[in-house]
Specification:
homodimer; alpha/beta; 434 Repressor (Amino-terminal Domain); Rossmann fold; 3 domains; 4-stranded parallel beta sheet; 12 helices; elongated; DNA-binding
Chain lengths: 348, 348
DNA sequence: CACGCTGTTGTGAGCGCTAACAATCAACCT
DNA sequence: AGGTTGATTGTTAGCGCTCACAACAGCGTG
């Protein structure tokens, strides 16, 4: 294996053909599992391939077939647990289907960034893109961009005619809220995520619906930005309300729109001397790995990110290969994880 | 099959050439910013490109230049905060340099998975790979794989002759340990990460060195697996030791090898009625976004993931473009973030 | 004016592969 | 036997691009 020159080119199909004593076309047939090749020939070729360490040149292949077998993923905020997990799911599913996946992470979706990302991917000839862009404005921008390939959204809502996959956020919120009401709470307060986010809207909607179904007038919604800090601030406000006790609606249960904010709420309550769940029950959303170790362990809603990834890729590939035409929208079921933070206790 | 319009092929360089009234070669020159093109001609071509919505075919380009301008990333455990953040940094840096980045996430690095990942990327003709494989066995396996392209490791240590970038884990551990000793603690206990991990080893080494430098015999090391649960277990053991009080080495300060385990330790201490930092000070490593909202806010070590990503890509590109030959190893400086969990209090 | 130079443009070949078609041969039928 | 079939293999022509080189203009120089 002495490499005298660095420039030794990798073997080509012609090299293999020569080595096996057949034509390059036969080599091609073996590689693409064409049925009409004699077993003996096939073996010759396979052996030659192995001897030379041959590997098909994907660029040449792409050039002639006009298929790059490459998918793009555009994601915002990839360091967060949710997007990161979805990414993993996407990537695995795509690899199984024989696609290469290329990711573009945006810090936070400025409109220009999105366009650049699409451009970047387009210039590499991706055949389709999955966009994890959970803000309404992004989905809007994406729809208007009119990309030259199919686009599937994750958590992109279904108001526009882009196909997509989402967790049933509303159902998740309903489950939490119902769980809290069932535990005997008179009402449930809510710390929502930022306005523009579709997940945020759906969770708030689910919460509101359940309250209204039970004839309860929903209390004022507090709003955060998903960060622990914003949760902390909301928690301080809630703590104030809980202690004041003169308002018509007592604060004994809070549904926080994600686990990180819930962490902040818990801290604020603790600092104010309010016991959880004794005086105020708290629930979150996402089930991040830390949630089980929060003080106290957090009741939350788990998302099956792997399933979301698999379904998105499935949908995208269907579009690419022309098996789907319309803007289908799939929902994945969430799962309620009950932990100590909403456990009914002996205290009032 | 009634898609008459679906089959319109994207415009080629020849189309642009015809539109602009020049040869395809001139178009190519404009596209690659060749200096010897008359300004007027250049404008003609640019206009034609715009009119037709032309885009260079990357496959054809790759075929003739033998450069795919694609990089691979192999990462284990991408849903964790650290790897996910590094990934973002890598991806941005690569895009800036005009490379496409394709990620392969492995659940947890079985040897076969690694080989498959390299194969997958190789079959797409990546020009180099960044591997975020922080376990010694992975790096070993990677070195033995002898990939047909340069490989740069992140947190891969420098004992093998693979170039790489790492945070100066040992320095980080030293900073924490010194900080705790300076606060007056007689000794510092340590909850380490799993054995095979290089980060784990380096953090333990840094801690041990500082103790020895100060003439303190390091207490027994507890070991976890990075998860909050394992930290919780270690915390229970430490709580037992702290309360027993008959051992020669008092438990008043603990350096936990990552924040998630520290969360578990904190919970165990709290449940046993031990106050933090009053009775036992606790420090972590990573500075995950939640750390600031732990009970109490956690002293920890912050890593500059963006810098790590940028440097890895820089190193890799240098190797690809032949500007670097030897297995250089870069270190990134950590930053100590001091919070309440190690704040000296009035109690002894 | 012949010569070389530089700047600008065009021509032709070929990267490594697949798709379409042609060629060959054995087997089978009437 | 002659023709038809089907399986197997080879031949040829590009895919869209870049590279090497040729061609030609305009210019200054001896």
């Amino acid at each position: 294996m002495a490499h005298p020159a660095e420039d030794v080119r990798p073997p080509t199909m012609a090299d293999v053909a020569r080595e096996a004593g057949v034509s390059h076309q036969t080599v091609s047939r073996v590689l693409s599992d064409h049925p009409n090749v004699r077993a003996a020939t096939r073996e010759q070729v396979t052996l030659a391939i192995e001897r030379l360490g041959y590997r098909r040149n994907s660029a040449a292949r792409a050039l002639v077939t006009r298929r790059t077998r490459t998918l793009g993923v555009i994601a915002v905020n990839t360091a967060l647990y949710g997007p990161a997990s979805t990414l993993t799911g996407l990537e695995e599913a795509a690899r199984e289907q024989g696609y290469l996946v290329s990711t573009v992470s945006l810090r936070t979706g400025e409109g220009q960034g999105l366009k650049d990302a699409v451009d970047h991917l387009a210039s590499w000839g991706v055949e389709g893109v999955v966009a994890i862009t959970p803000q309404r404005s992004h989905v809007q921008a994406l729809a208007e961009l009119d990309a030259p390939f199919p686009v599937v959204t994750v958590e992109g809502g279904h108001q526009l005619d882009l196909p997509g996959v989402s967790l049933d956020q509303e159902l998740g919120a309903r489950m939490v809220t119902e769980h809290l009401l069932a535990a005997g709470h008179e009402t449930v307060w809510h710390v929502a995520g930022p306005d523009d986010w579709l997940e945020s809207e759906a969770r708030t909607a689910g919460w509101r619906t359940v309250l209204e179904e039970n004839g309860i007038r929903p209390p004022r919604v507090l709003t955060g930005d998903w960060s622990p800090l914003s949760g902390y601030r909301a928690g301080q406000e809630l703590a104030g309300l809980a202690l004041a006790r003169r308002g018509a609606t007592p604060v004994t249960a809070v549904f926080v729109a994600n686990d990180q904010m819930a962490l902040g709420v818990l801290r604020a309550l603790r600092e104010t001397g309010i016991r959880t769940p004794g005086q105020v029950a708290v629930a979150g959303f996402d089930d991040i790995p830390e949630a089980e170790y929060f003080p106290p362990p957090l009741t939350t809603v788990r998302q099956d990110f792997a399933a979301i990834g698999r379904q998105s890729i499935g949908l995208l590939v269907n579009h690419i290969e022309g098996r789907a035409r319309k803007a289908e929208h799939l929902l994945v079921e969430p799962q309620l994880i009950m932990r100590a933070s909403t456990r009914p206790s002996n205290e009032s």
